[in-house]
Amino acid sequence: MWSRVPQPLMNLTFLLLALVALWMIGEFSNSVNTTGEGEVGYIVSYEGSIYFIQGEHIQQPDIENFSYEDHSMGENAIVFSRYANRFESVSMLDNPSKLLMKNIKNGDKVRIWYSQVFESYPAKIKVQHIEKF
């Protein structure tokens, strides 16, 4: 059967099968187990960036007055939050488009699952799944 199929067509078929297999492997590796606990926190929008903040005693005024300031001192730039003592962690979302699909707005309490934390300050996280509380 294969002897009658032209070589370029056989090569194309093999290439397409290989691409489909690679795509399936990529999708499988990106899948997230949402049965785990995930991380619980609040979504805050500030100056065009979306932040995920966590803390036990976060109140609505903390979310409304959230600011992230950048101050430079000589050669070393020090980046800090004016409310750093109130938040356990502050992370920036790498792909905020997931919020639009879930109708999540500023101040909403959410649970997120993420696949990657990028080395930056604040940490940037790649969200795989997000649920609104």
Automatic annotation (TrEMBL):
Tell me, what's a Pfam family for it? DUF3221
Matching entries from InterPro entries are given as: DUF3221, NA-bd_OB-fold
Superkingdom of source: Bacteria
- Protein name per its UniProtKB record: DUF3221 domain-containing protein
The upper taxonomy is: Bacteria, Bacillati, Bacillota, Bacilli, Bacillales
